[in-house]
Amino acid sequence: MSLRIVQFGLGPIGQASARLALDHGHVLVGALDLDPERVGRDLGEVLGRDPLGVPVSDDMAALADWAPDVVLHTTASFLDRIEGQLMACIGVGAHVVSSSEELFWPFDRDPGFSDRIDAAAREAGVVVVGTGVNPGFVMDLFPVVLAGVVARVDRVDVSRSVDAGRRRGPLQKKVGAGLTEAAFREREAAGGFGHIGMVESAKALAVGMGWHDAEVTETFGPHLATADHQTPHATVAAGDVAGIHQTATVVVDGETRATLTLTMAVGAPDEDRVVIAGDPPMTVVVEGGTFGDTATVAAVVNTARRVGESRPGLRTMLEIPAAATGR
Amino acid sequence: MSLRIVQFGLGPIGQASARLALDHGHVLVGALDLDPERVGRDLGEVLGRDPLGVPVSDDMAALADWAPDVVLHTTASFLDRIEGQLMACIGVGAHVVSSSEELFWPFDRDPGFSDRIDAAAREAGVVVVGTGVNPGFVMDLFPVVLAGVVARVDRVDVSRSVDAGRRRGPLQKKVGAGLTEAAFREREAAGGFGHIGMVESAKALAVGMGWHDAEVTETFGPHLATADHQTPHATVAAGDVAGIHQTATVVVDGETRATLTLTMAVGAPDEDRVVIAGDPPMTVVVEGGTFGDTATVAAVVNTARRVGESRPGLRTMLEIPAAATGR
């Protein structure tokens, strides 16, 4: 199935997503970006591919001419930055698949936003959905799918551990690798840190498990190195910061029912793990982890094929069919 | 969410499913079974629970009075035995969740059956779906969900290994544990063997991966013991049959794109494993395996909550939302 696709946002994730859409046989009919270095250039050239005859525009009014089936939306993490963008896509009758972390589960963070987007999407008969690997897969959709074959779920513990030393330089910087603990805490206080979407994952997990009125709490802190590490991008001394350690806890009726633990640090093992205590118990390990950069882009492009077989509205990955069957 | 449930079929899976429905807070409003030892008795008593004030009936006409939201259907594996039963449920406007292995993916085996059930279900605004652990999860839904975060899938290899020595006596007998190879081959020739649903899983996996026009081939044979084994139910000498070894292979354009391998044998390890070659590659292990008996019943009862948020028609687990969100 070949779709008419518009790429909205041409940062690293957006460019990778547009390239993958081409590789999957879709047709790129337009692209939106605000960077003056990209606007007006041919999209194919921006992507490092053959020319596509499609210029990059900074004007959302172009959406109407492009008439996309699906917009791949990769501009910003936060709801307050994207409402107008989503409304413009909905307004031309296009489905939207977004990598915005907050859009993965926006209902608690901003009910007003959620109601407005949901109403507009239903009215237009289109689907708006946020996806990715985290949030969007490892800590939410994945354990919910596993729980589908569990008769009684007592508790769910999900951990994702990423060796930041084997990832891009910006990620190592983002997790504070090489900082002293004091410098880390200073930057933390300034709000410069933290993986976005843990709370969103926890809320989605709770609803997926049928735990309504769940309370979610978060912790955040440095993961300290126990040995020296040297990467092409960072020098980490034992006792200094290797990366971040972040948790979300789901409490229902005073009882801890789920924990989500994210470690992104130089020298950490690459592994995702879901442990469901219950009947039957399940322990599921993604050996070597789910490689985040590629997996997020894959989630966005793969979901585009499936939204047409979903119910219109503001949806979540818990509601999108696992595959498009064409039926 | 409490549903009005009818249990259709009170064999071991049906009874377990009815008990779990009660444990999940649903209301059992009726039950159908043909066994004269059960008909007319109180359902609660048949289940080994407190009386429910609901008699077991052998007359499908009772469905209209019971007015169930969902029928849990656990009568038979084969399509030619269940069409009338499904139509009776559809006729009273009830969703149907079935453990019938062939119903998990009936489209290729019997297109006429599939068209008739699909048309009737759409007309009545209800969902009919087959589920379970295998088929229904390990070899089909599970790898398809994992592939949702893979940009390029080159090949998928799924294996499920079950230690029959740790399972019920009937299962050990079913897989031929303790037979000589000659006796196994004799019983195989008489058609008495084989796990049902491998082809169904393979076809669903292929469509889930977007591989249309896939060819599926099957193999079946004994898994021979390399050492002596003694269980409470079977004595297996080295060189004799420990169980079954069954495969399905998916070939697309002359190339093998997926293999499914099932080993159910005394002394085999308990493990499910999905290996996706591609970008990013994924290796996912269910440590200790997915415990079949409980998981199948869980799949049936858990799916009941989700069918109301699906599109009407004859559906597959690839299309049923991972969770009911109430939205």
Shape of chain A: globular
CATH topology of the largest domain in chain A: Rossmann fold
The topology string of helices and strands of chain A comes to EHEHEHEHEHEHEHHHEEEEEEEHE
Return residue spans of chain A where pLDDT drops below 50 for at least 5 consecutive residues: none
Number of domains of chain A: 2
Largest interface: A-B, 56 and 56 residues
Identify the CATH class of the largest domain in chain A: Alpha Beta
For the biggest β-sheet of chain A, the strand order reads 3-2-1-4-5-6-15
Strand content of chain A: 25-35%
The N- and C-terminal alpha carbons of chain A lie at a distance of 13 Å
How many helices of chain A in DSSP terms? 10
Mean pLDDT of chain A, nearest integer? Answer: 96
Got a strand count of chain A? 15
Structural class of chain A: alpha/beta
Rg from alpha-carbon coordinates of chain A: 20 Å
Estimate percent helicity of chain A.
Answer: 25-40%
What multimeric state do the chains show?
homodimer
The appropriate CATH architecture of the largest domain in chain A is: 3-Layer(aba) Sandwich
The H-level CATH homologous superfamily of the largest domain in chain A, spelled out, is NAD(P)-binding Rossmann-like Domain
How would you characterize the largest beta sheet of chain A?
7 strands, parallel
